[in-house]
Amino acid sequence: MSVLEQAAAARIAAIDLAGATRAEKDAALLLMADRLVERAGDIVAANAVDISTARENGTSEAIIDRLALSPERVAAMADGLRQLAALPDPIGDVVRGSTLANGLELRQVRVPFGVVGMIYEGRPNVTADAAGICLKSGNAALLRGSRSAFSSNAAIVSVLRKAVADAGLPADTIQLLDATTRDSVKELMRARGLVDVLIPRGGADLIRTVVEQSTVPVIETGVGNCHVYVDAAADLEKALAITMNSKTQRNSVCNAAESLLVHTEIADAFLPLVLESLLDAGVTVHGDARVAGFNDAVVAATEADWGTEYLSADISVAVVDSLDDAMDHIRLYGTGHTEAIVSESLGATRRFVAGVDAAAVVVNASTRFTDGGEFGFGAEIGISTQKLHARGPMGLPELTSTKYVVTGNGHTRG
Amino acid sequence: MSVLEQAAAARIAAIDLAGATRAEKDAALLLMADRLVERAGDIVAANAVDISTARENGTSEAIIDRLALSPERVAAMADGLRQLAALPDPIGDVVRGSTLANGLELRQVRVPFGVVGMIYEGRPNVTADAAGICLKSGNAALLRGSRSAFSSNAAIVSVLRKAVADAGLPADTIQLLDATTRDSVKELMRARGLVDVLIPRGGADLIRTVVEQSTVPVIETGVGNCHVYVDAAADLEKALAITMNSKTQRNSVCNAAESLLVHTEIADAFLPLVLESLLDAGVTVHGDARVAGFNDAVVAATEADWGTEYLSADISVAVVDSLDDAMDHIRLYGTGHTEAIVSESLGATRRFVAGVDAAAVVVNASTRFTDGGEFGFGAEIGISTQKLHARGPMGLPELTSTKYVVTGNGHTRG
């Protein structure tokens, strides 16, 4: 089947799914979970094909580890689906409601988008996650995973589709697109009218391509050049803990800090401490001239460093002369993901919160908290860095649209 | 200045505007209103240039009437700005908030988009409306009106910019783009990163072009092929009043009905009545074979009729065999704007409301109620027919994004 045929089938399936009750959707999610565990052997066997191909292609062991599935990892995917079943259903929520002066009853109600397209890279567990989140939010899912995980993804989707059908919902609410050709991505991006929203998850190149070429509305995710700004009025101990946690707790993720800005008045006290800690932790420090003066191990930062999302054990560090300079720097180089200030000054934090435009502005805490799980959403389909529709971590409500229901008794407009 | 230079200036102005209080913005709106009235003579004189050009170009008097400004029409624009000043400010609203298990305080707060681009046709009053709505919601506005109204729009924007500056806000929050060339539309559509959202208002061709070519996120507005479905269990009197009001109260607008679907069981009772009323009101009825049997004045409907937004005194009429057939017809030909059912059956209305996917689903009332003013929003920038971000009439909150503010006391992630 072509992508357009798959999308058309998804569109029809989505009509039934939109009418499914929470009980019906939760029963499907629980059956999907049970079947993944039952069929873990087949899934791991299909994964072995992907692993073997990756080895033949000379893929690094780090990436192979991300790709690899074990019975335990399959069980974790199943647990994710069970957690989704336990979450409230966003569909049918009344977002606002009132009775108008003429007696018309107005309600704005959450409804599914219809058909959601996902383009993603890497780990096959995203396949089960995305399928589950879409199903719970009443959306049919068109999943375009990476070529390197195609055999694994095909096995997972086959199990999930059978479970959905056995639970009495249309199997075509979950479909895997051909990952062996780039054409499937192109067709998906042009399927306006059949696909309601497209969510790319992956590297900056993938996201840029989708944003520029898609006629289907896109929710942009992920690129995070996140800053920690240590204000003149910072508590040094908190500043050190927050910087280290933001940079080193996990450095390959979009909410890790990539840049540290230090107010000049606190530089003498703070920089020696933080540079030593960063360097001890194996982080390469790319610093400006003032930073370099504090430690010989600092590498000279280039202009490119300030705009780089390293996703590695690297950090750029600059001294700034004021809070305004810090905000100007963030406006110039930030990607609108997560920006943190460390300060005990209420005035400084108020100005930073008001003046910095990002999905998340964090006061005296690690950038790593920008996450659907940490925010208590229970499920996350990605972190939006755009301003339209959803901004920041996206949970189930972010995968819905709304409709107005207007109820009268023969009302006409005068 | 090029569009990109104007957009860059808007971006800088938007930073100041985002920090403006409600009091500052309302003072600017009131001054804008006063100045429009004071300078009405200049505006009407500028308008005379557009009118004269339109006459030279052989423009119809109906369109010239839409274009024409009088002191009274300028006063109405000023009143619109005063009404905006009286509306609550959406900026700073806390959309959701909680304290997480670890003590982090999470708040999701409404913030402006930043820079909003508007592409619109026809009447110059839209210029003042759009400028006011954007200012109240904290957004800088890049306004690309029609070439036919360029002289009028230039005069209006000149007055508004001076008023904004005199009120202490940056004049560049309101800018008119060159309407004498199509290049300004093209540049605006490619100004991703400088312009946060683009709202096209106008004909289907304009909207399609923007949706297909823009890399700036778009909010699609307007096309409405709206249906009235008269169910087997309809009250005939309500059905007649609602059909007539939906079609004839004003037929050039997107929420006017373009198509009538009548359940076969009520066709004998209802069609003679409604056809006579429609024909008496000067409406051309494009009917299917069954409809044509009821009245010789019915014109045979072609396949194209079912998908046409007439925006004129025309209506397509079909007999359907069931509620499901009505919903299938609406799915096939509807544009997701407004769909109405007339029925006294709770079961039928429940099924219709659940099964029809549109910005507004209306029960026993006219399609003409889908409107920001009728919904009590106080201001409207357009009616979205897309599912992302905003659906249905868009008021001030729909012109905002959100950001998460996360406040801790040295919190790090474990």
TrEMBL record, chains A, B:
**Which Pfam families did the record assign?**
Aldedh
Keyword Cytoplasm in record:
yes
The enzyme's E.C. designation: 1.2.1.41
SUPFAM superfamilies per UniProt: ALDH-like
Q: In which pathway does it act?
A: Amino-acid biosynthesis; L-proline biosynthesis; L-glutamate 5-semialdehyde from L-glutamate: step 2/2
Please state what class of enzyme this protein is.
Answer: oxidoreductase
Q: Which domain of life is it from?
A: Bacteria
Residue stretches making up the Aldehyde dehydrogenase domain:
7-277
* Protein location: Cytoplasm
Q: Which InterPro entries does this chain map to?
A: Ald_DH/histidinol_DH, Ald_DH_C, Ald_DH_N, Aldehyde_DH_dom, G-glutamylP_reductase_CS, Glu-5-SA_DH, GPR_dom
Listed under catalytic activity are:
L-glutamate 5-semialdehyde + phosphate + NADP(+) = L-glutamyl 5-phosphate + NADPH + H(+)
Keyword check for Disulfide bond = no
Purpose of the protein: Catalyzes the NADPH-dependent reduction of L-glutamate 5-phosphate into L-glutamate 5-semialdehyde and phosphate. The product spontaneously undergoes cyclization to form 1-pyrroline-5-carboxylate.
Stated name of the protein: Gamma-glutamyl phosphate reductase
- Recorded source organism is Actinoplanes palleronii
Q: What is the lineage of its organism?
A: Bacteria, Bacillati, Actinomycetota, Actinomycetes, Micromonosporales
